[in-house]
Write a structure and sequence with these properties.
The chain is α/β, with parallel strands linked by helices. The protein contains 15 helices and 13 strands.
């Protein structure tokens, strides 16, 4: 017999009688969880070691309430009074939909709180200036995926526009590549709460890439980028802005070295090769993900994590329980390295700003391969 507990039943439990456990992986937990829940991805090991309270009702949840059913049954077999939260984290998210427009409150906090000014606003404007991302007369399509990064980028762009030292215009666009109902509702709800006037257009990208066996994530990213460029151009824009942040930059750099055998950074801006006259810019380039999470949590906001059909659940909802992407593996590796070297992430970013070409064996530029041997003959060098 399946032992489930609804959100209403959980709310009616006497205080102190239940322990709420999020059995998704640590990365999923960091994107958001039910208030009061403790992260417990390896709950069976905790139960077998006696680390869980037998005097309480243990309420487990994953993303959709699938794996939590199995684990609650396993805990019951070990003598625990365990339940699966019906519908999982997704059911709790649905309950959060609605609410009043809080854009004025959130904008005021971004402008006046020292914490946000130093961690979010100043790095944003520094990237805009340092990499010359916004120019007079620009028409920028701010591309919103529905996650915390792109939604914050939209708010920071609204603030930049409010200062308006020179004229430029903004369009806030959302591409729906085939989101499930919950993710679509979350995007629409958060845009309304934040006062971001989004324009949503639909594609069938997810359905297309699901039929591809080799490199579906690469194809999905290429198709999404192409659709964003096309829509932006239709709207008369000359730039698209993406919400990649500091952590994305260093993860991409390390991923290239570890998994692809190449040193390749993520550029703060790029000219489009397939859409002449258009550029891609990344104004969140210097903003750390932990600071974005802090803004999200302080603002009591909940966003989608990864909405694709391959990773829509979490690693705990997979049979093998392994990380679902090389990016997640790299993120965990950097986190581990920071335990002994807190500056490791800053050093990776600095390395792509400080490449010593005299010590590089070979490199490619504009599609042409170069070797140190090209200019080696007769040139003095120092060891």
């Amino acid at each position: 017999m399946i032992r489930e507990m609804t959100l209403e039943e959980l709310a009616d439990q006497p205080a102190g009688t239940c322990a709420l456990y999020d059995i998704r992986d640590d990365i999923s937990f960091s994107y958001g969880t039910v208030p009061g829940a403790e992260s417990m991805p390896d709950i069976l090991a905790a139960a077998e070691s006696g680390a869980l309270p037998k005097e309480k009702k243990l309420v487990l949840f994953c993303m959709h309430g699938t794996q939590s059913v199995y684990f609650s049954e396993e805990l019951c077999a070990l003598g625990y009074d365990a339940y699966s939260l019906s519908g999982g984290y997704a059911a709790w998210l649905r309950r959060q939909l609605g609410g009043a427009d809080r854009s004025a409150e959130i904008e005021e906090a971004l402008r006046t709180r020292k914490k946000y000014r130093e961690a979010l606003w100043l790095p944003f404007t520094k990237a805009v200036r340092k990499y010359e991302l916004v120019q007079p007369g620009d028409r920028i399509a701010v591309c919103i995926s529905g996650g915390k990064d792109s939604m914050l980028m939209a708010k920071l762009f609204q603030e930049l526009k409010r200062h308006n030292k020179f004229e430029f215009s903004l369009k806030f666009i959302v591409m729906d590549p085939g989101y499930n109902e919950l993710n679509r509702l979350l995007i629409e709800n958060n845009a309304r709460l934040l006062g971001v006037p989004v324009e949503i257009f639909e594609t069938s990208i997810f359905d297309t890439v699901e039929r591809v066996e080799k490199s579906p994530c690469y194809l999905c990213a290429r198709m999404r980028r192409g659709h964003l460029y096309s829509r932006a151009r239709e709207l008369g824009c000359n730039k698209i802005a993406l919400g990649h942040h500091f952590d994305d930059v260093i993860e991409t750099t390390l991923m290239g070295m570890l998994w692809s055998g190449q040193f390749q950074g993520m550029m703060p801006k790029l000219h489009s090769t397939n859409f002449p006259g258009m550029e891609l810019i990344r104004p969140m380039y210097l903003i750390r993900e932990d600071d974005i999470k802090s803004w999200r949590d302080d603002s009591r906001l909940h966003f989608i994590q990864c909405a694709c059909h391959f990773t829509d659940t979490c690693s705990s909802c997979r049979d093998d329980g392994v990380p679902v992407s090389k990016r997640m593996e790299t993120k965990l590796l950097i986190r581990k390295l920071k335990e002994t070297n807190p500056s490791v992430d800053a050093n990776i970013l600095q390395s792509i700003h400080n490449v010593m070409l005299d010590t590089v064996i070979g490199y490619k530029q504009h599609g042409e391969t170069h070797s140190f041997l090209d200019s080696y003959s007769g040139r003095p060098s120092e060891e």
